[in-house]
Amino acid sequence: MKRDRRSLFSTSTLVLAAAGLGLGASLPLPASSQTFRQAGAGVPNPAADAPTTSPDPDLEIRHEVHYYPVEGATASALRAGLAASGPKDRRTGRRYAGLTEYRLAWRFSYAVVNENCAITNVTATLALTQLYPHWAPGPRTSKRLHRKWQRYMTALTRHEDDHARTAVRGGLGLLHAIRALEPRSSCEELAASARQEFSRAIAGTNIELSLADAFTGHGRSDGVRLP
Q: Which residues, 6 or more positions from 209, have their beta carbon under 8 angstroms from its beta carbon?
């Protein structure tokens, strides 16, 4: 009995719908924008509740959190800063206060036995990148504004983490779908079927993300508002 083992690799990148402020202007990020690896004063740690642990050993999750600076001593000034400096959704060109982006890569191995090609193993890597605003309140900042910002960031983080969890479900669904593929008469046919499942997983994830943003108004109904 002749046995042939090989592996196929495919990858795709998808930018998720951004969440948060619906006031974005089509302007490039200012040259002074930068990212922060650590949360500063008045900023909860978004990584605390993010889905960084995979429920499936064959799905590796890599998670990064970055920050861009906003300034202001009033709620209106902070809203203006978010509208001017927030990340831009690549699909719509609109700016939002927060962004969740993922990159899903997958690899599967197959074996040819008795003229049938079957999958023997499949793994996936999900790279999550989240971008949040960073505001450092001054010594004269009112406690009321500080509390508003804390509530805002808590709601924004929760909304973005919902996006991240949706991406994780998409990765898990991809693994399940490819594992369930029946053997094919040729490995080319098997690879084509696997790619179809990948496309379905991405499309389903994107639909779920779009519906979530449409239902919540990009998180506004869940409290992603800075009054």
A: 16, 17, 163, 166, 167
DSSP 3-state of 197: helix
Can you tell me the distance from the alpha carbon of 99 to that of 19, in angstroms, rounded to the nearest whole number? 6
Q: Pairing mode, if any, of strands 99-113 and 4-15? A: antiparallel
Given pLDDT bands bounded at 50, 70 and 90, which one contains residue 8?
very low
Q: Which among 129, 130, 127, 212 has a CA at the least distance from the CA of 171?
A: 127
* Residue with tokens 């997983």, as numbered in its chain: 201
Task: Please return the burial class of 146, using the count of CB atoms within 10 Å of its CB with bins 0-12, 13-18 and 19+.
Answer: middle
Could you say which DSSP state residue 186 is in? S
Q: Find the helix or strand (DSSP H, E) in which 211 lies.
A: helix 187-216
Q: Encoding tokens for residue 56?
A: 């499936």
**Kind and range of the H or E run holding 189:** helix 187-216
DSSP of 133-179, one letter per residue?
EE----TT--HHHHHHHHHHHHHHHHHHHHHHHHHHHHHHHHHHHHH
Both structure tokens of 175? 């693994």
Does this model's pTM top 0.70? My answer is yes
